[in-house]
Amino acid sequence: INAEYMGREHIVKSQMEPKGESGAKEPPAKVEEIKKVAEEKKESKQVEQKSEEKPKPPAEIKKEEQLEAAKVAEDGKEEKELPPNEGNIEEEKGPPRGSGKPEDYVMPTTFEVEIHLEDNQIRIVNVEVEKARKEKPYIGGFINKKNGATYFNAFAQTDQYERPHPKMNHREVQTYQYKTQETLMMREFSSQTPVPGIVIETRGDKIMEAKPYFTSEMWMKQREETSLYVQRMVRGWLARRLAVKERKERDAKLHEDAEKQDELRRKDEENHKKEIERRMHPKTQEDFDILRKELDAWRDNETKKIKDAAAAKELSEIEMQKALKQLLIKETKLLQTIDRLKNSATVINREERIGIMLSAMSAAKMWKRSDGRFTEVVTPFTTRAKELMELYNGLKMPFLSIDERLDILLHVKWTVNEFDCSLTREIVDLIDREADMLNRGRSEKSLEGLRKRLCNPVSYTHLTLPTSDLVQISVVAVSLK
Question: Which of 418, 410, 366, 417 is nearest to 391 (CA)?
Fold first, then answer.
C-alpha cells in the first residue's frame, strides 16, 4: 500500500472542504467540481511520474486501477449519504482522531504483493485483509495539526501477543528495607575566624599538630615487625595447644594406670577376704579340703620343728614325746572344729537348696515368643507351689505368738489331710502334739526338737513329692488297711 498516496489524499480532501461564513460545507455541485479539478491534477502528476520513471509491471497497474475504482465508489457513496446541516453547528474538520485512514479510501479485501527473488524473478502473492469492525484507538503516531489527519505507528497496525517473563526481583527489594528519616541536631555548630573586634572562647580548643612524616620504608618496616609479631603469637598459640593436648593425654594415662592399680588392689582385698571367709565359714567341699590341707601342712611343720629340736639335743626324749602329745591334742581339736563347721555348713546349704527349689517351683513359667522375648505364665501348679512354700516358711518362722502358731499349724493340717498316707499321718501327729504342748503352756525351748522334726524332714518331703506320688501312696495305704 502506498502510504504516501494516502497522505496526499488527506491533504487534497482538506483542501476540497473549505468552510463558509456560517461554518457549513459547500453544496455538492461545487464539491464535485473541486474533486474533478483535483483528479485532473492528480492525473497530470501521474503522467509526469510515468514519463520520468520506468514502466511499471502489469500487476502494479492493475492494482492501481482497482484502488482508483474503489475510491470513486466510496466518493459516490459519501455524496449520497451526506447529512444536511442542522442550525449553526459546525461539522468536524477532517477525519476523526484515531481513524488512521481517509474517509474517501476503502480498504480492499485482497492485495497482490510482489516478491523479488534472487534470480531476478517476481512472485505475486495474494494477501487477504481483515478489516477492523470498530474504531481503532489512538495509541501512538503522528497528527497533522492543520487538518487533524492521524498516522498510526506500526505497533498500532499489527496484532500483539503476550510475552510472559519470569518474576524476577531485585536483591535490594528482597533483603533491605529503605527508610527516609530526617534528624535535627540538638545544637548547631559553626566556626569563626578571629578578627579584630571579636573575642572567641579558646578554653575548650585542642591544638592538633602534624605527626612526623611516615615514609614507605617506615611502613614496610612496621609491616614486617607486625608480621613477625603475628607469627610469634600464632606459633606460641600452636605450641601451647600442643602442650595442653599432650598434658591431657599424660594425665589421662596416669589416671587410667591409677584406676587399674586401684582395681587390682581391690580385687586382691576381695580375694583375701574371700579366702578368710572360706576358712572361717566354709560351705563347699573345696573349702573343707583347703582346711584339711592347711591342717596337714601345719602338723607336718610342727612335727619337723619338734624333731629338729630333739636332734639338736634341745629337747629330751620325754619332752619330745610330751610336745608330740600336745600337738596331737591340738590337731584333734582342730579336726573337731572342722567337723562342727561342716555340720553347720550342711544345714545352711540344705536350707539354701530348699529355698532355691521352692522358689523355682513357685516361679512363673517363661514362654519364649516368636520375636525372641519371653512371657510370664502363671499356672495352677505354680500357684499351688507358692501356697506350699508360704506354709513351709511359716512353720520355720520364729518368735510368733501362740495364736499365730496355732493358725499356721491348722492350715498345714488341712493341707496334708487331702492325701491319706503314712507321711501325712506323721505330719498330722506332730502337729497335734505341738498344739497340745502349746495349749499346756510349754516353753519355746522345749519345743525346738519337735519343730525341727516337723520342718526339716517331714514337711519338706511332702512338699517335694509330686501329687501323683502322694495319690499312689494314699491308694496303697487304703489297700493295706
Answer: 410
Characterize the bridge pairing of strands 374-377 and 122-128.
unpaired
Indicate the DSSP class of residue 189: -
E-strand stretches of 242-400: 365-368, 374-377
- 446 is written with which cell numbers? 522345749
DSSP structure class, residue 445: G
Closest CA to 367 of 376, 359, 358: 376
Contact between 150 and 97 (Cβ < 8 Å): yes
pLDDT digits (tens, 9 = 90+) for 119-134: 888 888 888 888 777 7
Query: What are the tens digits of pLDDT across the range 39-62?
Result: 776 676 665 555 555 555 566 666
Query: Taking the CB of residue 391, how many other CB atoms lie within 10 A of it?
Result: 19
**Other CB atoms closer than 10 Å to residue 287's CB: what's the count?**
19
Average pLDDT, the chain: 76
Which segment of 148-157, 302-311, 342-351, 439-448 scores lowest on mean pLDDT?
Answer: 148-157
Closest CA to 64 of 23, 128, 16, 108: 108
pTM: 0.41
Q: How far is CA 26 from the centre of its chain?
A: 91
Residue positions counted in the chain: 481
